[in-house]
Amino acid sequence: xxxxxxxxxxxxxxxxxxxxxxxxxxxxxxxxxxxxxxxxxxxxxxxxxxxxxxxxxxxxxxxxxxxxxxxxxxxxxxxxxxxxxxxxxxxxxxxxxxxxxxxxxxxxxxxxxxxxxxxxxxxxxxxxxxxxxxxxxxxxxxxxxxxxxxxxxxxxxxxxxxxxxxxxxxxxxxxxxxxxxxxxxxxxxxxxxxxxxxxxxxxxxxxxxxxxxxxxxxxxxxxxxxxxxxxxxxxxxxxxxxxxxxxxxxxxxxxxxxxxxxxxxxxxxxxxxxxxxxxxxxxxxxxxxxxxxxxxxxxxxxxxxxxxxxxxxxxxxxxxxxxxxxxxxxxxxxxxxxxxxxxxxxxxxxxxxxxxxxxxxxxxxxxxxxxxxxxxxxxxxxx
Amino acid sequence: xxxxxxxxxxxxxxxxxxxxxxxxxxxxxxxxxxxxxxxxxxxxxxxxxxxxxxxxxxxxxxxxxxxxxxxxxxxxxxxxxxxxxxxxxxxxxxxxxxxxxxxxxxxxxxxxxxxxxxxxxxxxxxxxxxxxxxxxxxxxxxxxxxxxxxxxxxxxxxxxxxxxxxxxxxxxxxxxxxxxxxxxxxxxxxxxxxxxxxxxxxxxxxxxxxxxxxxxxxxxxxxxxxxxxxxxxxx
Lengths: 383, 235
Description:
By secondary structure, chain A is of the alpha+beta class. Helices cover 56% and strands 17% of the residues of chain A. In chain A, the strands form two sheets. In chain A, strands 1, 3, 4, 5, 6, 7, 8, 9, 11 and 12 form a ten-stranded mixed sheet that branches. Chain A has a two-stranded antiparallel sheet with strand order 2-10. In chain A, helix 2 crosses helix 13, helix 11 (251-282) packs parallel to helix 14 (345-372) and helix 13 (297-333) runs antiparallel to helix 14. Chain B is of the alpha/beta class. Chain B has a six-stranded mixed sheet with strand order 6-7-8-3-9-10, with helices on both faces. Chain B has a four-stranded antiparallel sheet with strand order 2-1-4-5, covered by helices on one side. In chain B, helix 4 (124-137) packs across helix 5 and helix 5 (153-165) packs parallel to helix 6 (183-198). The model of chain B is unreliable at 231-235 (pLDDT under 50). Chain A binds chain B through residues 1, 3-4, 7-8, 10-11, 285-286, 289-297, 299, 374-376, 379, 382-383, and chain B through 54-55, 58, 61, 63-64, 83-84, 87-88, 90-92, 96, 98-100, 102, 104-107, 111, 115-116, 118-119, 163, 167.
């Protein structure tokens, strides 16, 4: 039976090849779109459960006084606190965008242990007030080496900011973002104190590491209670929820991508269903002959479903093989936008399962017709 | 010397009626047909086109259901069997030979012959051995690895006959087996059917238009407009 299924699926080679190609393209598109969605959520997935983010309750664009630091540190259960803000400078040209943060580096690096820095580089980074650290991929992108001067043109914080690259970090996990850029908050703040004291000594957010994950929601509530009815009330949430807030802003885009990915699958389902219906119709007489020999409806269902699944899986596997070079191309071409673009095992498995489902669904109608085929009716077509 | 005892009745058809619906019209193809066929008989069914001979053959082979009447084969009333029971019964009892051979084009001659055995529980090696034996019987074992497109019409029909006999059926139903063959190939196929009947004792029911083919049969029945020329119960 298996041999017959395989030979049947190769009976019309051009038709089968085109269907396999269509299926491969559909699975490739589906897999890539799913990977885009995964990349969108990469920040959320990378968030640690023991980290809380405290920001201004009104909006992230409003800052918090640095004076909150000691009050947050004093809350029981908090291990470390770091702070910082989004710098948003331009490196040579606006198209060279990458995420830049001015942070209190000492505690920040202790909290974000996934950023691996050699000890001597870390020492040099913490010692020098205008030192900076870049992720491996970011340094690769611009060809930076340790000791290079990197000048950022401030947009939120006007002026040219000269920074010296003293460290390059590597991610502990494959999914760790290696495109970030950090430097000392103090370096920016010193200038602000001199030039625009009204906006000095302020931070965009505090990041707290808690001792006990179980108590994180309780501690978040305690932080917010501490600053209730103050001029700058706070909103503290888990790092995951904080990151999710960013993703939610682009939810419509993510949904559109998801819808498109399923539309692609729906289209190939129709194409394969049509191919199988055509194939089964052409073989109606042959099915009648098989029934004459004693084959039953269930045997014909197995033959048709087997052929449909074989074609769908062949296309699916070709699509999956193609997904790796395609993802590599995406990673290279869109690395500035997607810090992590890795095809997950879950995506690969989903693609295979979808190929299987498409194969089975496509076979339903022709298999049902073949199972119900009257032999006499089928044989009458022969004579 | 006492006369030889007549073989038992294998096919007992009584008052068989079959009609088809074409749109709003009901066309009666067979009307109250009675026929008995003994084991080991070679029966030829003749008649003009549309006389119902193929329909009768299909009913005997269990590939269609009668509207009325009974159809007993080796004691089993096949008109009462369900679709799946009938499929199993057909597999065990009937070998069917078609006018246009109807081999599966993607399978070799040997694989085509092996096809009905896939439904049995025989291991692959035994299936192959049975199929090879059937091909030897019809004299085409040298072409066992050829695909149908690589065989002549006569050779394809031999493979089809091998496929029909591979399960060692009780009845061989042949629907115009020489209808698509040249004179020489037709003679070879008829010789083969005669051998199967005379040497192996197979009961053969053959529908044909060809009087020369009918001559090979031990008995001839004429159908006309769904009525058998004689409804007398044969012996």
